[in-house]
Amino acid sequence: MPPQPTPEPGKNRPNRPDLQHYLQKILTAQVYDVAVETELALAKILSQRLSNRVFLKREDTQPVFSFKLRGAYNKMAQLTPQQLKRGVICASAGNHAQGVALSARRLGCKAVIVMPVTTPQLKVDAVEVLGGEVILSGDSFSDAYAHARRLEQKNGLCFVHPFDDPDVIAGQGTIAMEILRQHPGPIDAVFVAIGGGGLISGVAAYIKAVRPGIKVIGVQMQDSDAMMRSVKAGKRVVLKEVGLFSDGTAVKQVGVETFRLCRALVDGYIAVGTDAVCAAMKDVFQDTRSILEPAGALAVAGLKAHIETNRCKGGNFVAITCGANMNFDRLRFIAERADVGEEREALFAVTIPERRGAFREFCQLVGPRNVTEFNYRISDTRQAHIFVGLGTKTKGESAKVARLFEKSGYPTLDITGDEMAKEHIRHLVGGRSPLAEHELLYRFEFPERPGALMKFLSAMDPGWNISLFHYRNQGADYGRVLVGIQVPQTERQAFKQFLTGLGYPFVDESQNALYRLFLK
Asked: 222 near 271, Cβ under 8 Å?
């Protein structure tokens, strides 16, 4: 599903509130005992590609790798000594928890943190290292919030809300104060991720009070868009379920105060999908060599969607990269989906004849395009079904490639947008086959350059048949390839000469126990 910008609230938009109160709170907020003034960095590579000047407000470089400590500390610094003595409690998907834990350590008070059971272990560990007492409860922020409220009453603790509190909102608003000081020149729009709405409320309150001509645009996940739906409905709505990919913005209901401010001050909203966020994470990495969490890249994904939808040229745009707390083991998924999200990779299910030489003929049709993936296992005497990934340069190119394959006599399904294909089918192509007699299994390292696969296919004896092929581009300077080749017993010596002459590193896996268990 493509990114979905929504129009401004229009006639349902209430009158703008008096912003002097928030302006004063932001200007006097106590955040710099724990927070730092983060860089507003020009993303040179992304700016060039989008033909606009794109600036990243690097809140991912805060001491807890998130903006959240600004609001948490500003709230807690104003508690009375008696309140601090009793201790504080909060509910959080992770980043607010770290802000509260660090603030509590600085202020010398106890901190109890209720987090959803789905919270990445990285964030749980970080809170515990800072001295916070972690309690896991529920599948979402809203579930954790309800449990934290019960513990607040039971144990007499002071609740520090992650977003629906004027002091928290004011702390987050200091980000906008820094942006306008760091970039006094023209700014067309500032893009802000939305979960419960605390960050965008503070940013919008300051910008609309000081430079109201700058647009403030909120960005949400398509499966966690509580603020967008609430603004459209004119009242706060409760989502039955929220997606967990962007755990930092997985909120079922926005706050009372944040809804009031967003409804009045935010100029527009954009919803983006998982693939677009993965692509944005890759974009930021290419410019900064930093890895954001999904919520941290939401604003960049929305910025890109806005520029594409409105065909902007020569503008000045700011995206707040609001967090970088992510488990390392999620990178594999993100790397696989990034190119699809940017439409730099197209996926196809192609049917070719099951005969010797057909695979090579198909590869010749692919031509100079970069092959990102090939999955195939012999299963029928007449037809072969292959899973193919190809690098693309322009959006919509997959449809043109599919038509080329069809025109050349290869029935083709364009599965670039198919969720099951991206998530599961690409890993399940294969299995045992009674047709794979005389099969040898080898792992190869192909140099990652055009023509490497054709060199392999052209060097093979035309009498040998490829019965299994698996390749996935890993972004390295060489590709790992698993190949099954049917070679008659009488031709094994010629096959050894083929391996030697090829010049590619290889390993014989024909006796591998897993091969015999799952594929032989």
From this structure: yes
CB contact at 8 A, 223 and 195 = no
DSSP 112-147: EEEE-TTS-HHHHHHHHHTT-EEEE-SSSHHHHHHH
Q: Is 208 helix (H, G, I), strand (E, B) or coil?
A: helix
**Which residues of the chain have a pLDDT value below 70?**
1-13, 428, 474-477
Task: Give the whole-angstrom CA distance, residue 357 versus residue 361.
Answer: 6
Instruction: Kindly state the DSSP code that residue 244 receives in the 8-state scheme.
Output: S
CA distance 127 to 138: 18
Q: Which DSSP symbol is given to 38? A: -
- Tokens 């020569």: give the residue: 314
Residue from 259, 260, 263, 267 nearest 188 by CA: 267
Distances, alpha carbon 199 to alpha carbons 78, 86, 96, 258, 299, in Å: 19, 28, 11, 9, 12
Contact of 201 with 169, CB cutoff 8 Å? yes
Q: Which two tokens stand for residue 498?
A: 């083929």
Task: Measure Cα distances from 203 to 163, 180, 190, 266 in Å.
Answer: 13, 11, 9, 10
C-alpha to C-alpha distance for 205 and 468, rounded to whole angstroms:
60
E strand or H helix at 232: helix 226-233
What pTM was computed for the model? 0.78
CA angle at 322 for the pair 319 and 328, rounded to the nearest 5°? 120
pLDDT in tens, 442-465: 998 888 777 788 888 889 998 899
CA 398 remoteness from chain centre: 22
Structure tokens, 515: 């091969």
Report the distance separating Cα 294 and Cα 282, nearest Å: 11
Would you say 73 and 30 are in contact if contact means Cβ atoms under 8 Å apart?
Answer: yes
Cα–Cα distance measured from residue 302 to residue 273, given in angstroms and rounded to the nearest whole number: 10
Angle value at C-alpha 244, between 243 and 250, nearest 5 degrees: 75
| Buried residues in 294-329 as b, exposed as e (16+ CB within 10 A) | bbbbbbbbbbbbbbeeeebeebbbbbbbbbbbbeee
Q: What is the 3-state secondary structure (H, E, C) of 307-371?
A: HHHHCCCCCEEEEECCECCCCHHHHHHHHHHHHHHCCCEEEEEEEEECCCCHHHHHHHHHCCCCE
* Tens of pLDDT, residues 238-282: 998 888 889 889 899 999 999 999 999 999 999 999 999 999 999
CA-to-CA dists, residue 174 to 59, 171, 178, 199, 419, angstroms: 11, 6, 6, 10, 39
Could you give the C-alpha distances from 167 to 28, 59, 77, 238, 259, in angstroms and in order? 10, 19, 10, 24, 16
DSSP string, 156-199: TPEE--SSSSHHHHHHHHHHHHHHHHH--S---EEEEE-SSSHH
Query: Which are the contacts of 488, defined by CB distance < 8 A and separation ≥ 6?
Result: 438, 463
**How confident is the model at residue 13, as a pLDDT?**
66
* C-alpha span between 123 and 95 (Å, rounded): 7
Average pLDDT, the chain: 90
